[in-house]
Amino acid sequence: MKEHRSALKVALRVAGHLAAIVLIYLMFSFSLFLGLQVDTTYGNIGMVLSAGAALAYVLRFIRNR
């Protein structure tokens, strides 16, 4: 029973990391859309925000290891 909980915990952790990476990618691609189609200022702001989100995710991931 304990192995089942451990496997479930690992699966949820992997799913959480995958969801975070997908959301950061969507944020990045939306900032590209804003920069190329709407206004370059919005694209630059989006790039800074998505880079900050990626950096925060990586630093949190490294800190937990």
Give a verbal description of the structure.
With 65 residues, the chain is mostly helical. Helices cover 95% and strands 0% of the residues. It contains two helices and no strands. It has helices at residues 2-38, 40-64. It is elongated and about 55 Å long. The chain starts with a helix and ends with a helix. The model has no long low-confidence stretch (mean pLDDT 89).
Which structural class should the secondary elements be placed in?
mainly alpha
Major pleated sheet: none
Alpha carbon gap, first and last residue: 26 Å
**How would the global form be characterised?**
elongated
What is the topological layout?
Layout: H1 2-38, H2 40-64
The gist of it:
The chain is mostly helical and 65 residues long.
Notable traits:
2 helices; 0% strand; mainly alpha; 65 residues
